[in-house]
């Protein structure tokens, strides 16, 4: 055998080992995400990932030998082993939140032109621990180490939006006390304690609804907007906030405020994922988490499985044996998601994907078209899409394909593209942009996202 043949054989062996490792890690991820505390049977895993049992056993052997997966011989089920807990603990012990968030802050500042910041919660205060200046015409230079009461400012409101009502009530009482002690203090709005407490309630309610908090300050000249979303740790506890600050035309009511909010919300999710939050709802609306699917089974042809013909598996996705994609369709209809507007507006789960169709710039309650410019209508459309994704435990990072229908493709493309990309981070989903004859609206966007 020549040297060339030997090198090719060695290269092939390396590729095979890498492929086996990737598949074994997919199995480990599946076991970790399995919703039944008793674990998953061999059949559950094989059907969920589209693997033959003999192949699956070969992949499970090194995982069980090294304590990453535990086999319950009595129940014939597999669940995470103790060494997985050790590795998770070691990772968390070595985490530096500033280091984890630094890249996200830099990208956020670059994309928006505003100063991106990281704020920690310490008891009933927030502390600014890191910031990256934006490239805009008036970049803010925040003072690291600056402290504010938890009830004062967008970072604190975003954090309170992710705790229970009892904790919010306790902090509201703190506001009343502070207002009574010094009604002229900057952190007490108005002369009455109840006015200050009501302002906090309103701010937290809005943050829960939007997935981010907004703070407006025009005392020193141009209106400066603060936008923050909560960061969750591996236990789902809100420990910090990612935010932006800078002069924004129109303030909190301007069209760009919602785009900045969506960008901040996506950044908070990114940091939360790095900290081990697996629910994918950091910065999302309300305080609920996505409910994992109940145990079941699926055929080997599920496009959600890993392999060369589909995206990597991202957790259990199972359907009843014998189901077809048509059988598995389920219209999304929750209070958190905008209701379909018109006969062709809908969101459907099918074959491991969430498909939206016909969502445009309509108010989810009234059904009225929001905005007259392409930028304003794009913002409303992206808000509607974000709500549908969030209702299913997803965000724009899960989107793999988008089709954009523009009423005036030649005239509106550039302004649309600017508003659209504020909501996304590279690598962008595959996108097709086409002209369309739309009734009373400037655009509609259809998206396909991979279920987790």
From TrEMBL:
Which controlled-vocabulary keywords does the entry list?
Answer: DNA-binding, Transcription, Transcription regulation
Establish whether keyword Transcription is in the entry.
Answer: yes
Entry-linked SMART domains: HTH_ICLR
* Molecular function terms, GO-annotated: DNA binding; DNA-binding transcription factor activity
- The protein's superkingdom reads Bacteria
Residue ranges of every copy of the IclR-ED domain listed in the record: 83-277
Q: Where is this region: Disordered?
A: 277-327
Q: Ranges of Low complexity compositional bias? A: 288-301
Pfam families on file: HTH_IclR, IclR_C, Ribonuc_L-PSP
Q: Which residue intervals define the domain HTH iclR-type in the entry? A: 18-82
Q: Which InterPro entries match?
A: GAF-like_dom_sf, HTH_MetabolicPath_Reg, RutC-like_sf, Tscrpt_reg_IclR_C, Tscrpt_reg_IclR_N, WH-like_DNA-bd_sf, WH_DNA-bd_sf, YjgF/YER057c/UK114
UniProt cross-references to PROSITE patterns, sorted A to Z: HTH_ICLR, ICLR_ED
Q: Which GO terms describe its biological process?
A: negative regulation of DNA-templated transcription
> This protein is called what?
Helix-turn-helix domain-containing protein
């Amino acid at each position: 055998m020549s040297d060339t043949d030997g090198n090719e054989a060695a290269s092939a062996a390396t590729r095979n080992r890498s492929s086996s490792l990737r598949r074994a890690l997919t199995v480990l991820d599946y076991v970790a995400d399995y919703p039944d505390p008793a674990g998953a049977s061999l059949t559950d895993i094989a059907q969920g990932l589209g693997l033959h049992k003999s192949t699956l056993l070969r992949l499970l052997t090194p995982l069980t030998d090294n304590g990453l997966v535990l086999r319950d011989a009595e129940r014939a089920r597999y669940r995470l082993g103790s060494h997985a807990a050790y590795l998770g603990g070691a990772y968390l012990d070595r985490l530096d939140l500033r280091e984890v968030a630094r890249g996200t802050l830099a990208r956020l500042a670059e994309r928006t032109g505003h100063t991106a910041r990281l704020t920690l919660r310490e008891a009933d205060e927030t502390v600014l621990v890191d910031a990256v200046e934006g490239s805009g015409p008036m970049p803010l230079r925040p003072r690291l180490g600056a402290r504010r009461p938890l009830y004062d400012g967008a970072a604190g409101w975003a954090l309170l939006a992710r705790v229970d009502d009892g904790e919010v009530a306790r902090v509201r009482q703190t506001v009343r006390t502070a207002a009574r002690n010094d009604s002229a203090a900057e952190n007490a709005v108005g002369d009455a304690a109840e006015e200050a407490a009501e302002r906090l309630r309103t701010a937290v309610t809005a943050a829960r609804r939007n997935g981010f908090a907004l703070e407006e300050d025009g005392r020193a000249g141009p209106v400066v907007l603060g936008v923050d979303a909560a960061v969750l740790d591996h236990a789902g506890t809100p420990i910090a906030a990612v935010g932006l600050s800078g002069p924004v035309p129109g303030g909190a009511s301007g069209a760009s405020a919602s785009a900045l909010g969506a960008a901040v919300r996506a950044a908070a999710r990114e940091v939360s994922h790095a900290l081990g939050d697996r629910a994918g709802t950091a910065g999302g609306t309300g305080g609920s988490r996505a409910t994992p699917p109940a145990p079941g089974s699926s055929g080997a042809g599920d496009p959600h499985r890993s392999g060369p013909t589909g995206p990597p598996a991202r957790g259990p996705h199972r359907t009843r044996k014998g189901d077809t994609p048509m059988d598995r369709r389920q219209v999304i209809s929750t209070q958190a998601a905008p209701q379909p507007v018109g006969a062709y507006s809908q969101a459907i789960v099918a074959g491991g994907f969430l498909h939206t169709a016909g969502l445009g710039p309509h108010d989810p309650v009234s059904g009225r078209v929001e905005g007259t410019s392409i930028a304003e209508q794009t913002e409303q459309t992206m808000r509607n899409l974000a709500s549908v994704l969030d209702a299913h435990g997803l965000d724009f990072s899960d989107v793999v394909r988008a089709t954009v229908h523009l009423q005036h493709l030649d005239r509106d493309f550039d302004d649309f593209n600017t508003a659209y990309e504020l909501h996304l981070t590279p690598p962008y989903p595959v996108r097709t942009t086409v002209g369309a004859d739309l009734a009373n609206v400037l655009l509609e966007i259809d998206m396909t996202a991979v279920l987790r």
